[in-house]
């Protein structure tokens, strides 16, 4: 159970609440149940949490993570890149398309920053803090420190990818990190989620639910 919320030190980080990851966009990268996390996130935002940041997957139309850019390859294949292995995905989150917008039902009243990630054509970015080369920073950690944030609650789409990578980096960067499990969508087998959850717990990340924040 997290300690009571503090208006300046606490922030809700909402990862990729975009139609491209929902049944609204069946030809992009729909994640089962993803749209259902929006009302859960809105309930948290209606509670005592004072500030939120939203990330937005924002890809070049020929982004390296798209299977369509690798002849003979299919989504979920893995390719080698200069920064290491990269899983391929269907085209999704293409900048300035309807699917890449922030979901229209998300309550943005407390959203003080929208961070676009994955905009470099040749590097993917799961984490909100570092791109997949694990070197290129997004500036988010510095921004959070500048505004006095000490503790992060993380929700959104999708575990164990963008959400879990973001949580892992947040903890490594010194933020007290809580993953709001019922406010997250999941892609892939439960075994992969369990393995990621064990890794996050070992890294000092805490787990909670939306009701604990309301
Ligand atoms: Zn993406």
UniProtKB/TrEMBL annotation:
InterPro entries: Isochorismatase-like_dom (IPR000868), Isochorismatase_Nicotinamidase (IPR052347). It comes from the Bacteria. This is Nicotinamidase. The lineage of its organism: Bacteria, Pseudomonadati, Pseudomonadota, Alphaproteobacteria, Acetobacterales. Residues 11-210 form the Isochorismatase-like domain. It comes from Falsiroseomonas oleicola. Keywords: Hydrolase. Belongs to the isochorismatase family. It holds the Pfam family Isochorismatase.
């Amino acid at each position: 159970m997290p300690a009571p919320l503090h208006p300046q030190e606490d922030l809700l980080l909402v990862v990729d609440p975009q139609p491209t990851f929902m049944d609204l966009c069946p030809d992009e990268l729909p994640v089962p149940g993803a749209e259902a996390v929006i009302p859960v996130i809105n309930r948290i935002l209606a509670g005592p949490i004072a500030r939120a940041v939203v990330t937005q997957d924002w890809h070049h139309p020929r982004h390296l993570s798209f299977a369509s850019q690798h002849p003979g390859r299919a989504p979920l294949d893995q390719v080698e890149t200069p920064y290491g292995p990269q899983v391929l995905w269907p085209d999704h989150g293409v900048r300035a398309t309807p699917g890449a917008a922030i979901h229209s039902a998300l309550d943005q009243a407390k959203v003080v920053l929208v961070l676009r990630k994955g905009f470099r054509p040749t590097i993917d970015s799961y984490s909100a803090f570092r791109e997949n080369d694990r070197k290129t920073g997004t500036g988010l950690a510095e921004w959070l420190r500048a505004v006095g944030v000490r503790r992060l609650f993380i929700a959104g789409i999708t575990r164990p990818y963008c959400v879990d990578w973001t949580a892992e980096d947040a903890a490594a960067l010194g933020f007290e990190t809580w993953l709001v499990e019922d406010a997250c969508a999941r892609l892939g087998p439960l075994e992969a989620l369990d393995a990621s959850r064990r890794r996050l717990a070992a890294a000092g990340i805490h787990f909670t639910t939306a009701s604990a924040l309301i």
